[in-house]
Amino acid sequence: MRKILFALSLLCLTCSLSGNDKDVVNFWQFWSDINTKPVVESLVSQFERENPGIKVKITDLTWPNGHEKLVVSFAAHQPPDLMELGSDWIAEFASHGLLAEVKSEFPENYLYPAKWNGNYYAIPWMLDTRVLYYNLDLLQKTGLDIPRDWDALLEACERIDALGDDYFGFGCNSAERHRLYKKFLPFLWSNGGQVLNNNGTESALDSQQALEALDFYLDLCNCGLIESQRRLEEYFRDGKIGVVISGGWLLRRLVLSPPKFQYRLGLFFTPAGDTGASFFGGEYLAVYARSKKAAAAEKLAAFLTRRENSRKLCDAAGFGFPPYNDLDVTDPDVKIELEQLVHSRATPPTPLWVDIEQDLEDAIEAAMYGHGTVDDILVKASETIDAKLKSERNVAAK
Amino acid sequence: MSRPNKILFFILPWASYFLVFWLYPLSYSFYLSLTDFQLLRGSGDFIGSSNYSRLLGDPVFMTSLANTFYFVFGTIPVTTIAALILALLIAEKVPGHRIFQAAYFIPSITAMVVIALIFYNLYSRDGYIHTLFRLAGLKPPANGFLQSEKTALWAIMGMDIWVAIGYYVLIFLAGIKAIPTELLEAARVDGAGFVRRSLSITIPLLKSTFAFVIVLNTIRSFQIFIEIFVMTSGRPFNSTLTTVYFVFDKGITRGDIGYASAAAYILFLIIMVFSLLQFKLINVRKTMT
To answer: Which of A98, A175, A354 sits opposite B253 (nearest CB)?
Structure first.
């Protein structure tokens, strides 16, 4: 019996020693589909070969509940050493001292969402934006060209909607968190509006620009289909929607299985027809502030965000751009995406964004379902957001 | 080992599980409900009953409570009556009764996430149910059942009834099997048909099973969450927001765990009151009989 116990103890000791000789970096990331996961794994293997002594453990997250999982892991004091974050979560985590400060050489405009109190807390891994997708066949049926200003866009959507019960002018999001606001913000920004003022201290949603933008969005919805993003994209691919807003992933699907109609990508525009601003989305990498493997995690982040490695990920995903300025693009549709990326804006970096996002979506939804006038709804949303910002300032002052 | 020690030894596994995973979280959650604890901050100050008074003045929380009550009182009678009728028919050993029994139970053992995703498609504008409504000459909501404030909650309730029936059919069947066969046979000899036997013998003898089904269904229905999480996230315009989803949203998504704990405690109290009332009613009836 004693011999068995001794052998077991020896085994345990060996195991624990063999575990210690490697610096295991816990890395939580969102690329879990069959195209991208192998690329992430192969990049990580390459990193491990280049850095003997560092071992990486990959854990997959999903976008619908990744934020919640991270929040819970922080609360349980067991977050990953390195984590992939949505661009609008960085300020929230950084403001609580949970992310390590980083020094970065990336372009300033791509680092904007990672900035909090004058410091940077994450580095960009890959970037994406939203563009307008047009069904050219439906447009042709209405006798109109690709719209160049707001009036033309609305007219095109109305005429497509009038083609019959099976056709819809515009794809309008609803009943999905984290998505609706991304469809409204391009119209708000293109009309010169903002969610918060320049200092991020007050809501700017009670402005004339916001009112006009929401009115316009409602007009588009009135001649469109209200559905989830996934379903809207399916309807578009079936040739039933004239105009949808989507990211590069839709282009990839259209290229892989070409629809029976001609389509075209287009930039957002201002009411008068100048180039408008779209939503800037990105995947960022951040290191846990109290990680014991911070050095190894930073090394991994730097490796993954190298131009060639980020490019590999974008190629596997079929969309997105490495976070560098001088990108060489030849495909005309991808060129439009890249041009829109340059004319894109990130949401204001505030710790309260998850809250503000929901207030904004509640307001858009209230307007869509006729719960008051647009003016009243925006004023009420502004008051709610202002109260939260004030309360946050008071807590921070304490 | 003395007898008290033996008893202690045998109840220790369950008692430790109860203490660690039930009693401690329950007590800690109550403490949190009296603080302004934030998940990301990792701390909070004692604020007394402020969270509770804030909740009572929060229209979104009130909407979530109202939706939960609609859900509970809308589904329980239908589920219970339908399950009882199906159980009575199966107990009559109609041809193929075993197939029916298995078929009704399948939804209960299928993952709710899978069912919710299937129904999400069925309820959409081009979905099967939407098309059936149109073929029947009815006017379903233009953008699908889940995109309309008026129909979204009802649609989820319909799905939930379909899912839950099979489980309660089994419980009723177990209750019917426990009824002495001689009673039913005597009635049959006296010429009582299926309806008379059901109304005069089976159903009156199923009172305790009824009570069990209703209490179980009430607790389960008050806690509805997965369907909402997968299908609507409480939308459109909070028309499908239930209290547990409200707790999840405030506590986990927004990290306001003190406020969420207070909401959870209010729901806990409501469920407790309802369960006690139901037990009391059952006991009163038992004494009367």
So the answer is: A354
Q: How many helices (H) and strands (E) does chain B have?
A: 15, 0
User: Rg of chain B over CA atoms, in angstroms?
Assistant: 23
- Contacting residues of A for B125, CB less than 8 Å apart: 225, 227
pLDDT given for residue B284 in this prediction: 60
Instruction: Give the distance from residue A327's alpha carbon to the nearest chain B alpha carbon, in angstroms.
Output: 36
**A21-128+282-341 architecture in CATH?**
3-Layer(aba) Sandwich (3.40)
Are the beta carbons of B237 and A93 separated by less than 8 Å? no
Check residue A348 and report its DSSP letter. Answer: P
**Are residues B245 and A358 in contact, defined by beta-carbon separation less than 8 angstroms?**
no
The phi, psi pair for B125, rounded to 5°, reads -60, -40
Of B41, B125, B253, the CB nearest to A68: B253
Q: Does B228 contact A at CB distance below 8 Å?
A: no
Cα atoms found within 13 Å of the Cα of residue B266, Cβ hemisphere only? 22
CA distance A171 to A178: 16
The DSSP call for residue A216 is H
Q: What is the CATH number of domain B50-288?
A: 1.10.3720.10
Cβ-defined contact of B233 to A175 (cutoff 8 Å)? yes
Compute the Cα dihedral for B104, B110, B112, B115 and give only its sign: negative
**Residue among B105, B149, B178, B170 nearest B237 (CA):** B149
Cβ contact A226–B147 (<8 Å): yes
- Rounded to the nearest 10°, the torsion over CA B171, B174, B180, B182 is 100
Answer yes or no: CATH 3.40.190.10 is held by domain A131-246+352-397.
yes
Rg (CA), chain A: 24
B192-209: pLDDT as tens digits: 888 898 898 899 999 889
Domain boundaries, chain B: 50-288
Least confident of A176-180, B128-132, B252-256: A176-180
**Pairing mode, strands A278-287 and A123-129:** antiparallel
First to last CA, chain A: 61
Location of structure tokens 């994450």: A122
A-chain CB neighbours of B155 within 8 Å are none
What Cα–Cα distance (Å) separates residue A150 from each residue in A157, A191, A208, A378? Answer: 11, 10, 16, 21
Cite the residue boundaries of each domain of chain A with CATH code 3.40.190.10: 21-128+282-341, 131-246+352-397
Q: Is B236 on the interface with A (CB under 8 A)?
A: yes
Distance (Å, whole) CA A222 – CA A216: 10
CB proximity under 8 Å: A 91-120 to B? 92-93, 96, 98
| pTM of the full structure | 0.86
Say whether B143 and A227 touch across the interface (CB within 8 A): yes
**Contact residues on chain B for A174, CB-CB shorter than 8 A:** 143, 147, 235-236
The whole-angstrom separation of Cα B215 and Cα A384 is 40
Helix axes A208-222, A353-368, angle to 10 degrees: 50
Cβ–Cβ of B39/A93 closer than 8 Å?
A: no
> CB–CB of B52/B61 below 8 Å?
no
Segment A189-223, tens digit of pLDDT: 999 999 999 888 999 999 999 999 999 999 999 99
Contact A45, A51 (CB under 8 A): no
Residue A328 three-state SS = coil
pLDDT at A106 over 70: yes
What is the C-alpha to C-alpha distance for residues B156 and B115, in angstroms, rounded to an integer? 11
User: How many C-alpha atoms does B22 have within 13 Å on its Cβ side?
Assistant: 6
Query: Which of A176, A354, A366 is facing B254, going by the closest CB pair?
Result: A354
> Do A214 and A184 touch, CB atoms closer than 8 A?
yes
- How many angstroms separate the CA of residue B2 from the nearest CA in chain A? 29
